Fold this protein.
Amino acid sequence: MDLNQILETLRVAQLPMRSKFRGITTREVALFEGPAGWGEFSPFLEYDDIESANWLKSAVEAATVYNFPSFRSSIKINGTIPATDSAEEIERLIVSYPGAEVFKVKVGTNTDSDLARLKLVKKFAPAAKLRIDVNGSWSVDEALQNIERIYSEIGEFEYVEQPVSDLDSLKRLKERLKVNVKIAGDEVIRKASDPFSMNLDGAVDILMLKVAPLAGIKRSLAIAEHHNLPMVVSSALESAVGMSHGLRLAAALPKLDYACGLATGSLFTSDLATHEIRDGAISLTSQTPNLEALARFAAPPERLEWWRERIKRCWEVLG
Ligand SMILES: [Mg+2]
């Protein structure tokens, strides 16, 4: 696939969000069509070209590769709860993940409201397991204190994702942590300049894989094999089209013991296709964008132009 083929079929959509997530209320995504289907290129707007180039590689893979390994046809998902204080919103979101047995809750800014949010999730989904995602915002000392406090107030939870920001802090935290809580690494691998060169021993127990930031299924599988840790596949807030690629990655992992964060479509008011959640799982289907939705949510021409230029620059990065 060459650059012209990407630009010729390029569409940009602005998807309205039900809940504010990562500080945004509209998710802008670019899509293009290749011989094997549609690829989604949707690095967040503030990402630079070097980081975004991985996303382009993943999108090209989605549009050009026909077959990937497949060990399962349905993927267990977790519900994702953004950093909200609204009980109404939390209840509404939980219902939007039918049958989910696990909820991932965004925390990190204020432990009192984090605890209130976690207790609400427990109230509305009493049988569900919880995991929390800090996005690296705690210091080692804060992490020790907050994890112990959360553990003592809500009881066991599945894991804490990226409690501190870097590899060295993760190691120091793990050394000192007294309570039995697993640690998952996300940014530590996703933002690494070389995810193969780092030694994650004594730093994390679980690794998050996000297909677009890690440059596609082939490379994600290589990273998983290299680190040999339990994996969780998660989204980067893609539309249903990009999500299909994440689902294919989850299907392609020989071993998958945890529910995956691939149901973030529930955070959108509307999506470009449908991934139905049934009994806490999503079936693997390849998704083509709904043309009517593409037209309805089409970005203005100046945004299309912005994405065209961004793709050209990322294409150059990929060489
Ligand atoms: Mg995360």
Summary: The pocket of magnesium ion is lined by residues 133, 135, 161-162, 186 (CB under 6 Å). The chain has two domains: 3-67+292-318, 74-290. The radius of gyration is 19 Å. The CA atoms of residues 91 and 124 lie 6 Å apart.
